[in-house]
Amino acid sequence: MASGPSRPNHLSEDHLEELSSTVRDWQFTHGSLLKAAPYSGKSYAYPIGVSLFPSNFPRRLFESALDLQRIFNQLYSAVANDGVWLYHMLRNQIMNDPASMAAILWNIHTNAISSGITQPVSLGIYRSDYMLHAPTPTDDMSLKQVEFNTYSVAGGSHSNLISQMHSHLAGTGAYQQDPSPLRPSLPANNTIEGIADALSLTHEHYCPVAPDGPSAVLFVVQPNNVNIADERPIEYALNDRQIRCFRVEFGGEIMARTSLDARKALLFHPIYAPEDPVEISVVYHRAGYNVEEYDAAGRACRLHLEVSRAIKCPSILGHLATLKMVQQQLTKRENLSRFMGDEEVETILAVCMPMYPLDDSKEGKKSKEIVRDGTQVKNHVLKPCLEGGGHNIFGGQIPGHLRQLRKEGNTGEDLVLMELIQPPDVRNVLMSPIQGGYSGSVVSELGVFGASMWRSTATRRSQKTDDQEYYEEEDGLREEEGDHSKEEDKERDENILLNRQIGFSFKTKRRSVKEMSVVKGYGCFDSPFLI
Amino acid sequence: MASGPSRPNHLSEDHLEELSSTVRDWQFTHGSLLKAAPYSGKSYAYPIGVSLFPSNFPRRLFESALDLQRIFNQLYSAVANDGVWLYHMLRNQIMNDPASMAAILWNIHTNAISSGITQPVSLGIYRSDYMLHAPTPTDDMSLKQVEFNTYSVAGGSHSNLISQMHSHLAGTGAYQQDPSPLRPSLPANNTIEGIADALSLTHEHYCPVAPDGPSAVLFVVQPNNVNIADERPIEYALNDRQIRCFRVEFGGEIMARTSLDARKALLFHPIYAPEDPVEISVVYHRAGYNVEEYDAAGRACRLHLEVSRAIKCPSILGHLATLKMVQQQLTKRENLSRFMGDEEVETILAVCMPMYPLDDSKEGKKSKEIVRDGTQVKNHVLKPCLEGGGHNIFGGQIPGHLRQLRKEGNTGEDLVLMELIQPPDVRNVLMSPIQGGYSGSVVSELGVFGASMWRSTATRRSQKTDDQEYYEEEDGLREEEGDHSKEEDKERDENILLNRQIGFSFKTKRRSVKEMSVVKGYGCFDSPFLI
Fold it and tell me: Where are the domains of chain B?
């Protein structure tokens, strides 16, 4: 991994200072920023964490990660189409912990079914995260999945910008006099366009109640979001396609500014002409991923959107598929076989790290064995069912954390234990607004973006089912396992309306730091230098 | 002036809040920002002042301002080509006040002549500023020139962005449901490309000493500049044309990082390969406009650049043409006739407000009369020979200011007195980082950008001249006055290598505020809504 421009050892102080200043100015002029808390009534922003150089990454594995995306799109769309299976996987949480994300979302889902789900089509915008895995220096490197995200996935716009920035720096001679040897190693990143294309195709697919009236995409966002620079560029890219967008806060603001007509069309009421509403084609969720957002207004808002005729990105079932317990179940051959052919199952298993639940199942017993073994546990991470960085428990801290949970009466059934990925040694220079400058060993995470639009084939079954019925269907579910027929494949293919890899993100952190979240200041946006 | 979207009277608080938030996010994501002073080691930026709506402006006068630009380009290039005349106009200052900008620049110019000026070609990037003039509500509005700037002109990038922003807001329905009636009234603004085109053509015109070696444009900038967002986009637009740029601070950094070879080629030494220098084609001055910058290092830097083979944007003579005394002299028919045909002279005079020097000349006597007359003086502004807003003295404060200067032994010969332009009533909503929100009566200033590249015909004469000789040539100058021959026209036309209108800026301030500087927080960037 010695080629490429990431050679901080040869960097003079002066060169570093010049590069930093060039990078900061580029970030200020291209919106590679985070908003700061307003200060004496004024708005400020500061550069988001970035690497000064692209980080080395094997071309072969980069390309295979991109290629994998359509298979993962297919898998998670099939999962989101299978409420029965999802319920089965999440039943413990749904039944035992009504404050859990799984229970809250499931409850909204069943309420939506009672009201009648009017829109069979869903859009998923996914991000599958990978690290390089090389347990010993002599091992061949392989690609391992860190997690799969189906809801409100972020980082696409920032990564798009930083790929552009590194290409700009290389092209203008900021790294070395002659940029030509660097160019072929810096892959183009058009994730903003990729996401906008997926939303735009979905917008076109929507069949409006008022075909001649105005229509628009609704961005559902968090209040006081510091990360508008990851969302706004997608809105602007849709505007460039002559698609209007409205940006409304999750919860009360959605309820105040939108209404449902008799045919469940979701209507947005512009502030200057509330009597002249705009029909919403697509609800693009960029909020509602924290359990804290689901107060009474949050639940009402999510249900209101879910029962509307607008196409949701994604539907609640699509959201449920993002929970860690689901991902853990999808590292098991028997579950994968429910959704995919043998070849795809093997392809997926090859990038999965071993994952275990903390319940009383056979795998649950294995996880308890690992936790008891002081050596084995060091090689694992405990992941809660929460979004964003900062919540994971690593290695030696796991046993104590679990003891504490048990004291508090928590069974830990919403946790999964995953074997740690062992990334190879790569060096870079990072500039983080929180951690300052750093030059040394780093770890990168490649996120591959995918889009999938599908027509639900489960709607009929779901619509006549309540909790009790789902429960009863469990026996049927067991019979179905592994029962993967050609007819089902055909039916599924016909109902997949879009399946694309639409871009990538690339994030890098100091090797000594455990978490990757850039918004929280742990990681930095980066781009791959393909070797 | 009632049509157009700028109708703050009809704006609800909610609409205003939504628009402000949309505007701020757009500014953060498009670099419409000013850098703040670093705070605890971190860099921050905040949105530059902008208007929420475009401001009404008569289409006829907008178009005639654009059309005028080529005539002004020609005039100021001819002035910069005429060191003898410039010396004559600035002689009092040059002789009497060695600390004045005129004296400092003239001194560097004569030193450059002694060393030998090797580059006969100059580039001017100009901005001619206008306001609407309507002394009484029944008067027909006319266009009046506020000032003409030939050195380090700013605002092109910001204005380009804000025109884009207002078009974006109109197009996405932020003002009203149907944007189609607004579109034809929002003229396209491509000033960034216009400036980059001018620099790029000049770069191509430059004949390098090492024709196969690398070459680049040098941006000479101020240290700790908060306004990088006005400069960097020009650099990026040149990069898009495969032209490299280097950004170096005026003064010591220029001396440390550039050298002259035996043929006076200006060489830039990149930080990672100082032994492998890049030949500079064009020196683009965005610093050196304040007299305080001319300490020993500043003077050495300016001379070093001036004697180099690189094409300067602009040369020192081009810089001297920006001084207020020159502009005042160019409101006189007899001076204009030295440089232009009768028709152009009349065209220029029609946009000039009366201006007077404060010396012992005939016009100087007129200015003293005005200052003594309590009524007349209210209608005037006193302009010092300084760049940027904040230095002008208005109306009733003029007599006291002049008394104070006389007490301090200052003759006031570097001041000019100008009749105030009387702009019509226009309304808008402004959002300024310093003054906060404002809705009410505003005044706008249209700046038209021009580029002119010329080959000096005076170089021969200049090169054998020193101060004394210029002085002696005065009699010759008097004979030349008004002596405008067809041969001279032809010679001049052949030596004009480029003459273009390249864009515009548009700034708006509260009517009650005297100064327009946006960087200092007085004014806001805006765009015209043509009516």
Answer: 12-342+426-530, 354-419
The CATH number for A354-419, chosen from 3.30.930.10, 3.30.1490.50, 1.10.357.10, 3.30.540.10, is 3.30.1490.50
Listed in sequence order, the residues at least 6 apart from B477 whose beta carbon sits closer than 8 Å to its beta carbon are B84, B85, B88
Q: Which of B26, B231, B160, B526 is nearest to A31 (CA)?
A: B26
Given CB atoms, is A434 within the 8 Å cutoff of chain B?
Answer: no
Length of chain B in terms of residues written:
531
Please write the tens of the pLDDT for every residue from B105-131.
Answer: 999 999 999 999 899 999 999 999 999
pLDDT at B413: 77
pLDDT recorded at residue A75: 97
Q: Does B437 touch chain A (CB under 8 A)?
A: no
d(CA A267, CA A271): 13
Give the confidence band of B40 by pLDDT, cuts at 50, 70, 90.
confident
| CB-based contact B326:B89 (threshold 8 Å) | yes
Q: Which residues of chain A have a CB within 8 Å of the CB of B43?
A: 24, 28, 46-47
Residue A396 DSSP one-character state: G
With CA atoms as reference, report the closest residue to B160 among B1, B50, B68: B50
Inter-chain contact B272–A42, Cβ cutoff 8 Å?
no
Q: Kindly indicate the confidence band of residue A358, based on its pLDDT and cuts at 50, 70 and 90.
A: confident
The pTM for the full model equals: 0.92
A471 contacts chain B (CB < 8 A)? no
Region for A152 from its dihedrals, namely left if φ exceeds 0, alpha if ψ lies in -120 to 50, beta otherwise: left
SS3 B425: coil
- Which of A35, A47, A244 is closest, CB to CB, to B173? A244
Contact A483, A335 (CB under 8 A): no
Helix (H) or strand (E) holding A406: helix A398-407
Any CB–CB contact under 8 A between A173 and chain B? yes
Share of chain A above pLDDT 90, in %: 69
